Amino acid sequence: xxxxxxRYGVSLEWTGNRGSGTSSYRGYGRDHVIRAPGLPDLxxxxxxxxxxxxxxxxxxxxxxxxxxxxxxxSYLHVAVKHGITVVAYADDAEGTLRLNRDGSGEFTGAVLRxxxxxxxxxxxxxxxxxxxxxxxxxxxxxxxxxxxxHEPEIxxxx
Length: 158
Known about the structure:
3 helices, 3-stranded mixed beta sheet, 3-stranded antiparallel beta sheet, elongated, 27% strand, alpha/beta
């Protein structure tokens, strides 16, 4: 068993056939279901701009979610490693997608805005600096080809 390599699997099923398949661009739904063993189903779709359903997750949101989750988990890890006690963490992330004339597109950047509260007596400046280390360790941020920036706020609990 190779401990340095991990494999992940999901299943995707398109559920948007309205009876005539993809016979026309507006004639089919973008709805789909994402599954993984032991987890609740995730209802997916396209961005509403591309005829998706506002009540379902789209791939762009899921990519941004993965970046935000990965940074948080990496940050919590480095906090423990450096003796910083995090008592609260929240993030409001934003990504920018550029569409090209040929119909393609790509993310051009993401900004994570983590709001971290550390226990009283913890050095706020150290907690702030740990975001750079967390970014270097984050598997997802290391895997994308666009900049992932951080605008963290650190406060100390009373």
